[in-house]
Amino acid sequence: MESRINVRFTLVSLVVAFHMLLVASCSDVKEHTADAINPEDSVAMMTSYGVNTLISDSGVIKYRIVAERWEVNTLRQPSRWEFMKGIFFEQFDEQFHIQAYVQADTAWYFDQLNLWKLRGRVNIRTSNDAVYTGEELYWDGRNHELYSNTYSRLVTPERTVEGTCFRSDEAMTRYTISNSKGSFVKDDIEDDEKASETSAEETAPDDTAAVAPVRQATQKRSKSGK
Questions:
Q1: In the CATH hierarchy, which fold is given to the domain comprising 41-186?
Q2: Which residues, 6+ apart, have CB-to-CB distance to 132 below 8 Å?
Q3: Is pTM, for the whole model, over 0.70?
């Protein structure tokens, strides 16, 4: 009888000991909480790989977009499309000939602002055969202009210009580049020289006619003095 009581007492003591150990260990546990989610760390709503899409306008295929990875994130402010693996964009005419293209190593499109940000080996060719190269370029769809504060190079059929602080319209027909240098077609320089010579010849007779009476008057005075 005593042995049974001792066994029960031992089991109860063992259970109590384990319970106290568990309570003590639980009381020593520290909560490990992660930091609050930053809006910039939000997960993209859509991620597409190997994108090669044709886009039509009024039933006619006009554009093609090629990207290795395309992410759409609507939670970040402002919302954006991200092309972190590069982008290639083409524009076609009605005969499906390439009119223009845009290429960059990385690109962001802020849909609410209608603003493109291109970075890394940016190459653009317009329908006017103007070719732009640079390291970073913004394309403002609201104001229909392109601008960059980094080194830019623009090649047109007439001239080649490079410099910093580039600003232009979308067609790259009206542009400004500060700290610029470049080369021009020889015919343009010769035409300017001919135009300046022609203008000088046309103004010369008027100057001579204006001076002639003064010379005659001087000669008459000299004779009368003698």
A1: lipopolysaccharide transport protein A fold (2.60.450)
A2: 122, 123, 124, 125, 126, 146, 152, 153, 154, 155, 166, 172
A3: no
